[in-house]
Write the structure tokens for this entry.
Amino acid sequence: QQQVKQSPQSLIVQKGGISIINCAYENTAFDYFPWYQQFPGKGPALLIAIRPDVSEKKEGRFTISFNKSAKQFSLHIMDSQPGDSATYFCAASRYSGGSNYKLTFGKGTLLTVNP
Amino acid sequence: DTGVSQDPRHKITKRGQNVTFRCDPISEHNRLYWYRQTLGQGPEFLTYFQNEAQLEKSRLLSDRFSAERPKGSFSTLEIQRTEQGDSAMYLCASSPRVAISPLGNTIYFGEGSWLTVV
């Protein structure tokens, strides 16, 4: 059972464009939604995260939009740059005891930003 | 702060052999996690330690897998009688004791240990 569904599987964007990656979750107990960025041969690195009490969070060129009723959240990358080319994973977990340890990840989106 | 360190980074082994991976978390991080990632998939949770106590194990962790964190610092993940299906990247992660933001603890991943079983 895939609890977090991510789309698209791959995405090609021109430099300066907007990259949009979508995720949907099933478990309504999830209350922490991070996005991770992974470069080839590296471990995932936390990019941005949100809790369901807000509908949007922005950090620099990265924005998470969250729709609790639809159980969906998305990552928007504004002014996409070639250096953003990486695999992006959405994830979800239930906040427990101060540690969001049991992350459930989507399958990832391979983003390519052409110069 | 040198980040989460994993060793070895790559391991090729014959089916049936045992392998062991080591993880050194960020110093003073009391929580340590193991995840497994196969090609084209997201990481999957395997197990979690708080200090030296192993608090949760996924059903993915068969009886051929064992993880330890004897002194609450570094951790080892051993796979006995390896099978081709064990080929994957094994990721270690750690997080600090105290939440540093309202979002909870940030989980920091290492660069992973690639296992190929031939």
About this structure: The first strand of chain B starts at residue 5 and ends at 7.
